[in-house]
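Many introductory courses stop at the sequence. We go one step further.
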Amino acid sequence: MPTAFPRPVAIVGAARIPFARAGGVYAELSNLDLLATTLSGLVERCGLAGVRLDEVGAGAVSSHSRDWNLAREALLSTALDAHTPAYTLQQACGTSLQAAFQLAAKIACGAIDCGIAAGCDSASDLPIVFRQRFARRLLQLNRARSLKARLAALKGFSLRELLPQPPSAAEPRTGLSMGQHCERMARQWQIPRAEQDAYALGSQRKAAAAYAAGHYDDLLPCAGVLRDNLLRADSDLDSLARLKPAFAADGTLTAGNSTALSDGAAAVLLASEDWAQAHDLPVLAYLRNFRCAAVDFVADEGLLMAPTLAVAELLSRNRLALQDFTLYEIHEAFAAQVLCTLRAWESADYCRERLGLPAPLGTIDSGRLNPWGSSLALGHPFAATGARVLGAAARQLAQRGGRALVSICTAGGMGLAAILDAA
């Protein structure tokens, strides 16, 4: 298979803490707490205490002003050599996957030999701030050097200025939330409620089976939590059908077929083959290539449809067909989003008009899709999901061999995709 990488990029470690429902067991933990726990666990698992890595790239989507140097602060909480540099980045739900892409590109060209990509998010600790008018008033007070200047800064003050301003869930360009955008997609692609519920139930059952098989036995303990606590193993179609629409009175998206707000963190260790061998770390899988894409969702291309483009371009650049994969790790923001993506790849019109292809990409084997369950069952701490799916794909390839396709949709109409090969 053609690859743009001058030298192989290996995934040699993966770790995450259990994901938890927002406002629950991790409610008192910050982004820094979650990320530091995860990085420390990965460092211990891979025997890296005292080791100087080339880079650590990590980030969070919902971050406080105190998180301005989040990656570096988390690193300094681990047993890694303090001379390891770190940087904080953000690309919405693709944050930790983008971090992996950046490290992979540097490893591939020989600029570095190793690095950790990670992400975390705490929906329990959202950055709720003062309104802008009061914030400006505080800054003016801070600059004041006389009583007259202080009184001038307070002139016109109203108690309404003290009302908190929570972060918005809406896309700035449209004023619509991701769920509202996905409702539009579900209507456009005619994805009925029953099909969404059936898909969501399938994700729950796959995750429950993966737990029973021991595939999640390696989760890092955090705050006494050992398992993802969003998993609803006892869910059934009747209970899902009773749930009310979440984003529109006549909608089809519900709390049961949409991801829940959650807290968590995940990380992956990437390296050159020589570095991995020198540190006695077996290769789980190789990150062969990757692609990022975006759609004009303001023009109604579908906010969460960018992975259709990223995957199509990635397949073309690597001369592969959609069916040339042992497994597919597709992030589940909503059941409808996954189903719209699958339907788009099957559509001759969409593939021709939007993807510029002469024929549809076709169908994939549903048994190969998210075999261990995905975000609907496990949770979706925004910036952590990329590292979770990358680590899950690598671990599955280490067990069964083959090739994996990974994709994530993000806010802002972006999508990321990657190809992994077994070692």
